[in-house]
Specification:
Shape: globular
Structural class: mainly alpha
Helix content: 55-70%
Strand content: under 5%
Number of strands: 0
Radius of gyration: 16 Å
Mean pLDDT: 91
Number of helices: 3
Length: 89
């Protein structure tokens, strides 16, 4: 299913970045992984909601789940949160 392509593509990309960054001499703060200027980071992250709604209106994607129950939404939500929210961003 389409849902499983998110971790299939994001995990190898994250692994490659995890190996490449120290090899190229980058530390975690150099990559922006710190808590400095967290207020600005929060404002920027909130713009993701606006862009997400606009993207939805433009693309009108098919639903990833067949039914709209919390049991059906838990696993897809975790996959999307980890694959696109944490690993890709």
């Amino acid at each position: 299913p389409l849902l499983y392509w998110y971790p299939i593509t994001s995990i190898p990309l994250f692994a490659a970045a995890l190996v490449a960054a120290p090899t190229l001499g980058y530390a975690w703060p150099d990559l922006g992984l710190n808590l400095r200027r967290w207020g600005l980071q929060l404002v920027i992250s909130l713009t993701g909601i606006v862009f997400g709604v606009l993207e939805y209106w433009i693309l009108r994607p098919e639903p990833l789940v067949a039914t709209f129950t919390w049991q059906a939404l838990v696993w897809p939500s975790l996959i999307l949160l980890i694959s696109t929210g944490l690993l890709e961003e």
